[in-house]
Design a protein that fits this description.
Distance between the termini: 50 Å
Structural class: alpha+beta
Number of domains: 2
Number of helices: 11
CATH topology of the largest domain: FAS1 domain
Number of strands: 16
CATH class of the largest domain: Mainly Beta
Largest sheet: 5 strands, mixed
Strand content: 15-25%
Helix content: 25-40%
Shape: globular
Mean pLDDT: 91
Order of helices and strands: HHHEHHEEEEEEEEHHHEHHHEEEEEE
Length: 331
């Protein structure tokens, strides 16, 4: 949508006006959904809200009696969706509808959460039931999880909007359950992390990574395993005991753990120490690169090229997962 309404947007706006009971000649603030429909910066959010079946919900007053009739939405811009390769309404078909709906719920707070309340270290509940936390970097930039808050307090008739530069992601499961959700096509229509799940199970690490943690996990894509010389899941399942031992060492090289000073479990990208070596469970240091555009590279001692974050900042119940495009080799 540029300077005109597409047919679907116009029909949606008319429907929401009817639902909201807008009177003639009465000046009213637009609803959260109306703002998404009429603002070209939120075109993809509009498309997602329609496919995720939350457009009508956010076009009306909040029915929760404790909310004052309001919602607060951390609203991803078009550029935020583009980071995930989602540039059109058709692209959203790559996501399961139920996951898309839950993702949108994760952006919603029941009630008014003003920009002044977004203080570093504070947390807020979401309509998904998973909390988010506010982070301030040394340069003063403010983040919700790993997403920079690029504006605050856009007023709507039924609440507030805070624009953000990355889509917030949460699974509602632990690290292993989240990886299995991708493997079994509960997130993307196309399976992903199938190699990683097979490797974790083969090495007997699924129990440990389902524990309390907290963990920060760098999760290689299927293509990353292929590029590292592991051609298939079948090859993983048929590994001998010595091969499994070597694979376990490699997997542990992808996990940061702990919540005490000097440890980096459960960290979003703006919380990771840039240009610094960090110690994973595999005990061979990883080198983190510079924090740029909301992501950070990571390199194993055996890598000639650092890994990039493909999908950063996925909130799990026992930590944070960053999907990366290379296997981190310790030697």
């Amino acid at each position: 949508m540029k300077k005109y309404f597409p047919i679907k947007a116009g029909l949606l706006a008319l429907g929401l006006m009817a639902l909201n009971g807008c009177a003639k000649n009465k000046e009213v603030d637009p609803s959260i959904t109306n703002i998404a429909v009429t603002n070209p910066d939120f075109q993809e959010l509009e498309d997602a809200a329609i496919r995720g079946d939350v457009a009508v919900l956010l076009g009306n007053k909040n029915a929760d009696p404790t909310s004052g009739g309001n919602f607060t939405v951390f609203a991803p811009t078009n550029a935020a969706f583009s980071r995930l390769g989602l540039n059109t309404a058709q692209d959203l078909g790559a996501l399961q509808q139920s996951f898309l709906q839950n993702t949108l719920y994760y952006h919603v707070f029941s009630g008014s959460l003003a920009g002044s309340a977004l203080t570093p270290g504070s947390t807020s509940n979401s309509a998904l039931g998973v909390t988010r936390r506010i982070i301030r970097r040394a340069d003063g930039t403010l983040y919700v999880n790993g997403s920079q808050i690029v504006g605050t307090d856009v007023k709507a008739a039924n609440g507030l909007i805070h624009p953000i530069d990355k889509v917030l992601l949460a699974t509602g499961g632990n690290v292993v359950q989240s990886a299995i959700a991708l493997q079994t096509s509960k997130v993307f229509v196309k399976p992903e992390l199938t190699f990683l799940v097979a490797a974790v199970v083969k090495c007997g690490l699924d129990g440990a990574l389902s524990g309390t943690g907290p963990f920060t996990v760098f999760a290689p894509t299927d293509q990353a395993f292929i590029d590292a010389g592991i051609p298939s899941v079948t090859a993983i399942n048929s590994m001998t005991l010595p091969q499994v031992d070597g694979l376990r060492t490699i997997l542990l090289n992808h996990v940061l753990s702990g919540s005490t000073a000097g440890t980096f479990g459960n960290k979003f990208t703006p919380e990771l120490p840039e240009n610094t070596a960090v110690l994973p469970l595999g005990t061979v240091p990883l080198q983190l690169g510079a924090f740029k555009s909301g992501v950070i590279t990571v390199k194993g001692a055996g890598n000639t090229v650092p890994a990039n974050m493909v999908i950063p900042d996925v909130q799990c119940t026992n930590g944070v997962v960053h999907v990366i495009d290379r296997v981190l080799l310790p030697f």
